[in-house]
Amino acid sequence: MDMDIRNLQGYASFFMTIFLVIMLYGYIIHLYRSEKKGERDYEKYGNIALDDEVTSAPVEDKPASKRDYKEDKK
């Protein structure tokens, strides 16, 4: 079996495509399950594009202990 670079590239791209498809479906299943469990409501995130004013209410309000405050030290 003569394996030249062209065949190797073909096999590599085929397996990479299969791997990425599996990862995509895994991510879709993760999103579906987390929305079904009630962990996240992704429709709220979809409304960000429609309601993007500075004065709009945040989608999720993090508790004060989990917020990231970046303070500039002088």
Automatic annotation (TrEMBL):
Residues 59-74 have a biased composition (Basic and acidic residues). The chain crosses the membrane at residues 12-32. Its EC number is 1.9.3.1. Residues 55-74 are annotated as: Disordered. It is an enzyme of class 1 (oxidoreductase). The keyword Transmembrane applies. This is Cytochrome c oxidase subunit CcoQ (EC). It comes from uncultured Sulfurovum sp.
